[in-house]
Structure formats: C-alpha cells, structure tokens
C-alpha cells in the first residue's frame, strides 16, 4: 500500500494538488494522510506565549479538523475511494519539521504539494513551502503547478548529470509512476561551455541503462544551449508530462539561486516536477 502525504492550507492550489494525487493513484491501494500544520505559537508575533490559552489551541485544532473532515469526505467520495484510505493529521509545528517527522514516522512514499507553477524553477520554488522541503527530506516530492489538470503521463523527462549510477531501489518511485501508465522515460544530459563527453559518463550511462532494464527508456545529449533553454526546448518538443530531477540537501536552494548549473533549470509552467533526493539514488 502506497503512503501519500498531502499537506494542505485549504487553498485552491492545495486542493488542486490533492485532486491530482487522487487521479494519479486512483488504481493503486493507498492511504492518504491529509496534513494541516498550525504555527507553534498562535496570534501576533509579539504575543506573550502564556496568553495562548488551551481554549485557543483547542479551537484552532477543532476548526482545522472540521475542514479536513469535509475535505476528506469530498475528495475520497468523489474519487470513488474503494482502494483508498484517509487519515487526518493536525500539527502545531514549523511546517518543514512537521512534514519531516511524519515522513519518518509513517514511512511516506511521496509528498504531493501544490506550487505556483511559474515559468522557471526559481520562481516555482522560492518563497514556497515546497522549497523548504526539497533536499531536507529523503522522501520524493511531487510539485503540482497551479491550475494544472491531471493528464495521463506518457512522457517522463529525467535530467541527469551522469555523476553516478542510480540504483533500482532509488528509482522505484519513478518506476511506479511509469508502470502505471506505460510511460517512456527520457533521460537527458546538457553539455555546456567546455564540458565534453567522457568515458566516465559513458560508463554511468550504461550503468543506468542496466538498472532501467524492462522500462521504456531512451537517452538524449543536448548541446549548444544553456541548461535552462535546453530543458525548456526538451520539455516542449518531447511533450513531457512529468519532469524529474535529483536534489541534494546542502546546496539545492543555492542551486536555484544561481550558484551552480542545476539552479538554472527551468521548465514549462504546466509540467509537474518530481524531485528525488540524491542520497536515496545511490
């Protein structure tokens, strides 16, 4: 049974991501954890913590519980939910800390969240709750752009730098999605500047091919274009339905802000993004 974490702030964006998740996993046996995180201290920033009464906390929890119950009833019933179970979780905590604890305690397989769906990866993440999670939890994160409607995933694009061979276990979150839809997985690598193809990259590529035996895969080498432009052209020309990339804990946000090639990556605003943690791929 797959375990899916669905954080929500009850916004339209979060609701859209939840509906996408139910359609993505409609034929799978799943338990969906609906999570709403409340701040550890309610009220104004300068409020004396002692003035936050038990009644205030209980009231906030009760209101969140009522909203979550209505959301579960609407979503699970609407999805036909015979294979689906749901559990409500309310936490008074920092958002990232709450998600990290639940991922560990519940053995979550993937976190599905809404995001802004801007034209580039920097705008997509910066200032969002998603940004604080990526690279900080080992669990895969699926970010759904605003207003995106679910469509069958025929084409998956996977950006790779060929620095190491992925393991079959590490790629299993991607494989599970690919098997559901008999998707094609398109690995692509972008050579920039003076970078050249090497024997080491060829070895890694062949290693990935072996790991992906049985899957519908193909490999592309893109040149004569910066990473962001090459990615955009690849996504649009191949009609990619899901883009996948790997992130590291320590430098992901720096990457996004322009201190390494990965952060330059941008993609079509209507393309969901699956982020796998590099440590889980090794």
UniProtKB/TrEMBL annotation:
Protein name according to UniProt: UspA domain-containing protein
Pfam families named in the record: Usp
Domain UspA: start-end pairs: 2-145
Family membership noted in the UniProt record: Belongs to the universal stress protein A family.
